[in-house]
Specification:
Blueprint: E1 5-9, H1 13-26, E2 31-36, E3 40-42, H2 47-51, E4 61-63, H3 64-67, E5 71-75, E6 77-82, E7 87-91, E8 97-101, E9 104-107, E10 111-113, H4 121-124, H5 131-150, H6 154-160, E11 162-166, H7 170-189, E12 199-204, H8 215-227, E13 231-234, E14 238-241, E15 245-248, E16 253-255, E17 258-261, E18 265-267, E19 278-279, E20 282-284, E21 297-299, E22 304-305, H9 320-337, E23 354-356, E24 362-364, E25 371-372, H10 373-387, H11 392-404, H12 581-587
Parallel strand pairs: 1-2, 1-9, 2-5, 9-21, 11-12, 11-17, 12-13, 20-22
Antiparallel strand pairs: 3-4, 6-7, 7-8, 10-18, 14-15, 15-16, 19-20, 23-24, 24-25
Helix pairs in contact: 1-9, 5-6, 5-7
Length: 663
């Protein structure tokens, strides 16, 4: 008898705990598969310390394969579930697709950033749900403080060293508290010329900080924030966001380059595609975490609306503490559905909450006892060490080093703003250059993510690294040496032609359409020489000229393999660009001759950045920096001398075929 197949979607608090408990309970009697976009479990409560430079990123990343024995890890993101066929369709990190069959399915996909219909927020704000977003915020804050310190203009300095955090819950409060300490330490070493200091703002529509906590803890957190200079504004929200600042609901306009969105989370949209009963975006389950009418389907964590048996009529909140305990109960019930053990109903008892405010300050109420100050700080860090499933010694070592050594305020530049958009279906994965974001497709449970450039871009980032583009994109269109119009790496070339049609109105003349790399305008400097001229395209039916069609060694007839070289082939000029020889060489390998008409052959991009793996071997004159050793025959007396970048006379070939004017 084959072993039952158990598939777990997501490795957050609920999914990781489910997989770990199932690995212990099944004892090799079931095939457990964990589907997750990353190979680590992220301990989210310590993410603000990563952004503040206290902890290194790997300290809060627990290896899945190293801590989950007997669990098969599949890297990918679920983008469709066939409940009747009992299969999960997923997309891998490199775009590959696959299907996982199951006998029991556990949905623990987690949550994503909560969006609100506020103009400009999606373009100019960044969330705080994943490791890439924390790394980006750390680099961005460091860069803004360094630029502000070097600025002479007070208005620019004030805008760069103003940081706005929206959302005064757990995450927003900790981000503002740690961020204020981080920037103060930077300015202490390198004071600003204008004498200004960094300014942090915390906004929320709620009447107080952390309204979900006890009022005494809320007052403690607000007092610590104000002591550090944080501008706490309750009952105020963002009305509009722009590239240069935000407009608040009270009419105030704040100049800033940083907008951190910590408003909240919403369940992963994957569950919406199932067509099952929902409760505010969460999948309805019974107290045993099982979907009614689907005995093989379980859900836990943020995607599940679990009835709160201690408070009838309500559902457990979307917190890490509940998700962690959901996973344990879910694993026992999955095993019970396979005939081993008894089912359990989910009941919980609040153990209290802890909020790390940086340094020795914290707010906590373990077992309902409110605490503040250094005692609360010790309890908070002790709780995190006990709750982490790994890396405890490394985390404790980083805390010790941070207490005795200054922080390293450097920007690595590994994560750009376009790779962590707010409207991301996978905040735990940075957007990869050259291909659309892997994840749910439109209609499969996730909103479609645009593959065109986002409008948001950091002032200090190069023009070629605008939001939504690729890491190796050229500058904006219609600029010298820019990328072909409407062409993206990995995408379809412009005009469906090999290499794409270069953008018009560029220096070096306008390339002709439907030509690989474009044919320069005739009789222009650096362009194609007139026909029958030395170095130009030889006149037809003349010695050394283009052979007649359908002749041996001549141009292949149309609709034959290798295509029509006369109309779709390369330009007749010795070089497909109007640039000087050295400029062309610096731009990259030349495009292959003749646009291959063979099926399955991908056209090569033309111009700068083509970077083909096997560029065509250069023929004709040497491509070295020096002059060619064989200049060829002298031009006739009645003809003008060849241009500085044109080889005189027809190019010799070594394959027995007549030259076609392509060097």
């Amino acid at each position: 008898m084959s072993r039952p197949r158990i598939v777990i979607v997501g490795a957050g608090f609920a999914g990781y705990r489910t997989a770990r408990t199932l690995s212990r309970l099944t004892r090799h009697q079931a095939d457990i598969t964990l589907l997750n976009p990353t190979d680590y479990f992220l301990y989210l409560p310590l993410l603000p310390q990563v952004a503040a430079g206290i902890l290194e990123p790997r300290r809060v990343s627990v290896s899945l394969s190293g801590t989950l024995p007997h669990v098969r890890l599949v890297l990918g993101e679920a983008d469709g579930i066939d409940l009747d066929g009992r299969t999960v369709h997923y997309t891998g990190p490199e775009g590959e697709e696959g299907t996982l069959p199951y006998d029991r399915l556990v949905l623990a996909a987690g949550s994503v950033n909560k969006l609100l219909p506020i103009p400009g927020v999606a373009e100019h704000a960044h969330g705080f749900r994943g490791l890439p977003e924390a790394l980006y915020l750390r680099d961005h804050v460091t860069r803004q403080v360094e630029l502000a310190a070097a600025a002479d203009d007070r208005a620019e300095c004030a805008a760069r060293c103003t940081f706005v955090v929206v959302g005064a819950g757990y995450t927003g409060t900790e981000v503002a508290a740690h961020g204020a300490m981080y920037t103060d330490a930077q300015v202490r070493k390198h004071p600003m010329r204008t004498g200004m200091r960094p300014r942090w703002m915390l906004l929320d529509v709620a009447p107080r900080v952390m309204p979900e906590m006890d009022e005494r803890l809320s007052r403690t957190a607000e007092r610590v924030l104000r002591q550090r200079g944080v501008d706490v504004r309750m009952g105020t929200f963002v009305k509009e966001a722009t590239h240069d600042g935000v407009v608040l609901t009270d009419g105030t306009s704040v100049d800033t380059r940083t907008l951190v969105w910590c408003v909240g989370v919403r369940p992963d949209p994957l569950v919406e595609s199932l067509g099952l009963p929902m409760e505010r975006g969460r999948l309805l389950v019974d107290p045993h975490l099982q979907v009614p009418g689907r005995p093989e389907l379980f859900a836990c964590g943020d995607v599940a609306a679990v009835p709160d048996l201690n408070q009838p009529g309500q559902y457990t909140p979307m917190t890490a503490q509940h998700a962690w305990r959901h996973g344990k109960v879910c694993a026992h019930n999955v095993v019970a559905s396979l005939g081993r053990g008894q089912r359990r109903a989910y009941r919980h008892r609040d153990l209290g909450f802890v909020v790390d405010l940086g340094g020795a300050k914290a707010a906590a109420n373990p077992l309902g006892v409110p605490m503040s100050g250094p005692a609360a700080g010790a309890v908070t860090r002790g709780y995190h060490l006990a709750a982490m499933p790994g890396n405890r010694v490394r985390v404790a070592a980083d805390w010790l080093l941070d207490a005795v050594l200054p922080r390293q305020a450097v920007q690595l530049g590994l994560v750009r703003s376009w790779s962590v958009p707010l409207e991301s279906s996978s905040p735990e994965v940075a957007r990869v250059p050259g291909r659309p974001e892997a994840g749910r497709r439109e209609g499969a449970g996730r909103p479609a993510t645009p593959t065109t450039p986002d409008r948001q871009r950091s002032d200090t980032e190069p023009e070629g690294e605008q939001a939504g583009g690729t890491a190796n994109d050229a500058e904006a269109k219609n600029q010298p040496d820019s990328e072909p119009a409407r062409s993206r790496p990995g995408g379809e070339p412009a005009g469906n032609q090999p290499g794409g049609e270069p953008a018009k109105a560029r220096p070096g003349s306008e390339p002709a359409k439907a030509q690989p790399g474009g044919q320069p305008a005739k009789n222009q400097p650096g362009s194609e020489p007139a026909k029958a001229q030395p170095g130009g395209e030889p006149a037809k039916n003349q010695p050394g000229s283009e052979p007649a069609k359908a002749q041996p060694g001549g141009e292949p007839a149309k609709n034959q393999p290798h295509g029509d070289r006369a109309k779709k082939g390369p330009s007749g000029s010795p070089r497909a660009s109007g640039k000087p020889r050295r400029a062309v060489e610096a731009a990259g390998p030349r495009p292959a001759r003749g646009g291959s008409g063979r099926p399955g052959k991908a056209p090569r991009a033309s111009g700068a950045g083509s970077a083909g793996k096997h560029p065509a071997a250069p023929s004709g004159p040497s491509r070295s920096a020096g002059p060619p050793t064989d200049p060829g025959p002298e031009p006739p007396a009645n003809q003008p001398p060849p241009g500085p970048d044109i080889a005189p006379g027809p190019v010799k070939r070594t394959d027995g075929r007549a030259a076609e004017g392509d060097s």
